[in-house]
Amino acid sequence: MISAICPGSYDPVTNGHVDIIRRAASIFDRVVVGVVQNPQHKAPLFPVEERVEFLDSALAGLDNVVVDVFSELVVEFARRWGARTMVKGLRVISDFEWEFQMHHLNRKLAPEVETMYLMASPQYSFLSSRAVKEVASFGGNVDDLVPPAVARRFEELYPRPRPGAPVSPQE
Ligand code: ADP
């Protein structure tokens, strides 16, 4: 069985992530979605349990995909699952710079683990967890950008005014 991992913070999962995971699942026998417990560079909005729940519900139809949490080095996570490949999505040039650095660092740490990059689908190439959080927090509609469970949670966190409801500038 050939396994790959799809690591990330998934804070929260977006339709762009789901697209990459689906495409990876059509190539590999098994895909393990690795959710980093405590991202180093950013405090997550959603606790890890909730990030996992969102992924579980978004990926429910994919039989060869499992979701797991990790707090070790990503290459150690790959080794733990017996995966020789990490799959990552590449959106724009700015992703490339960071990914280039991480690729070589990870190859140094674990030469047997290869990273494979899938080009983001055009309709998701502008999409990031950070951007959807920002839009949702200002009351913007992100229903087409995230899986339904995430959209519902955003609606609870940041209720949107009903269409036609009077808006008072004082409120
Ligand atoms: P983000 O970069 O949005 O915070 P993560 O850290 O969870 O997301 O990233 C996990 C992986 O998913 C990374 O390889 C990232 O490049 C990829 N990814 C994130 N958003 C998209 C997207 N819209 N399309 C393709 N790949 C994406």
Distance between the termini: 58 Å
What sequence of helices (H) and strands (E) makes up the elements? EHEHEHEHEHH
Strand order of the largest sheet: 3-2-1-4-5
Oligomer: single chain
The number of helical runs is 6
Overall outline = elongated
**DSSP strand count:** 5
Q: What's the average pLDDT?
A: 94
Radius of gyration of CA atoms, rounded to a whole number: 17 Å
Main beta sheet:
5 strands, parallel
Essential attributes:
alpha/beta, 5 strands, 6 helices, binds adenosine-5'-diphosphate, 171 residues
What does this structure look like?
The chain is α/β, with parallel strands linked by helices and 171 residues long. It has a five-stranded parallel sheet with strand order 3-2-1-4-5, sandwiched between helices. The chain has six helices and five strands; from the N terminus they run E-H-E-H-E-H-E-H-E-H-H. The mean pLDDT is 94. The longest helix is centred in the middle third of the chain and has 17 residues, at 93-109. Adenosine-5'-diphosphate is lined by residues 8-10, 14, 16-17, 20, 88-89, 91, 95, 120, 124, 127-130.
How do the strands and helices of this protein lay out in sequence?
Blueprint: E1 3-8, H1 15-25, E2 30-36, H2 48-58, E3 65-70, H3 74-80, E4 85-90, H4 93-109, E5 114-119, H5 129-137, H6 148-157
Parallel strand pairs: 1-2, 1-4, 2-3, 4-5
The structure holds adenosine-5'-diphosphate.
